[in-house]
Specification:
Number of helices: 9
Bound molecules: nicotinamide-adenine-dinucleotide
Helix content: 25-40%
Order of helices and strands: EHEEHEHEHEHEHEHEEEEEEEEEHHE
Structural class: alpha/beta
Strand content: 15-25%
Amino acid sequence: MVRRPIGIVVNGVTGRMGYRQHLVRSLLAIREQGGLPLADGSRLWPEPVLVGRNAAKLADIAARHDLTEWTTDLTEALARPDVEIYFDAQLTRLREKAVRLAIEAGKHIYVEKPTADTLTGAVELARLADAAGVKHGVVQDKLFLPGLRKLARLVRGGFFGRILSIRGEFGYWVFEGDWQSPQRPSWNYRVEDGGGIVVDMFPHWHYVMEDLFGRVTAVTARIATHIPERVDESGAPYRATADDAAYGIFELEGGIIAQINSSWAVRVYRDELVEFQVDGTEGSAVAGLRECRVQHRAVTPRPVWNPDQPETTDYRSQWQLVPDNEEFDNGFKVQWELFLRHVVEDAPYRQDLWAGARGVQLAELGLRSAHEGRRLEVQPL
Ligand SMILES: NC(=O)c1ccc[n+]([C@@H]2O[C@H](COP(=O)([O-])OP(=O)(O)OC[C@H]3O[C@@H](n4cnc5c(N)ncnc54)[C@H](O)[C@@H]3O)[C@@H](O)[C@H]2O)c1
């Protein structure tokens, strides 16, 4: 078997996403399966070059996974001729500058969302990448979750008839840090560090809505900072300046209305941490990370409002589980494989920096809608 090595700078590899999802569960997982089989019979073999600020942490990760290539000098990593792809999972605020350097160095670009911290920056990156003739992509992992893949299958199979509305519920309690350690990095709660749930989650909701249901045409949002003070990783209290909850209404082409709650200050009484209910004239579905349940028009029960009687109907039992019908791999890995094929075999790839910029646009408009207290239309980029 011929191995075709491909050098990939992994910047921000010490972070939650960079290490676990992208290095271990994607790039190293591709190696564990013997590389990515290509059309010419060879196997693409990712060769990660770890980049970060802390040499000791990089050396430790490299040693743990039998890797040899790491550096704290991004320019040096980008100068390597064997590096073809620059991947960025750093703090969002740092992304734009690093991606610009990588484009200048002629590398293909793959980045975490949001692609930049302003729409102007995100559009500029997409333009620069196009002008340089490099391939580019943004992580849209939720599209590859089993629950959402099954939901997409229902949409494409015409299950819903005319789709009326979507209601999304996302969130869980993120500990304040005083009596139990917080399960997310503190920068997420500081607007000056690029934090906030709108900036974090609206890009996700954007590509989910756009890919499954159609273009988002308008947004109305209300945001809140429910927990104004938190305690950081070192035990020091800090003021949470960023929004930790967002209540958004999105209008989609075709008249579909989506309403999505996102919160880090909500306790879970749901089957999964994110759930989308889609109602259509012919049927409804509720999709989570893994599962998807449906109720067809023909089997829709007739609930009767009667507060004088105790509830005797188990509504949840009236829904039918959508079968897997295929094997679902880790979503981050599936998307890496698509992007790698796009780079080396020119396979089609939709999740580019323009799609990323549209996600940043929705986040920016969501924040503006909340600050100005009004509905805003989304202009095509
Ligand atoms: N696709 C997803 O589902 C998903 C989920 C969470 C986060 N993200 C995105 O991934 C990126 C990283 O998020 P994360 O949760 O892994 O964050 P994290 O704090 O765990 O990691 C941040 C990375 O940036 C590096 N960094 C560089 N300069 C830094 C500085 N001054 N302060 C702190 N870190 C610095 C850190 O060393 C680390 O490698 C963000 O852009 C975020 O929006 C995506």
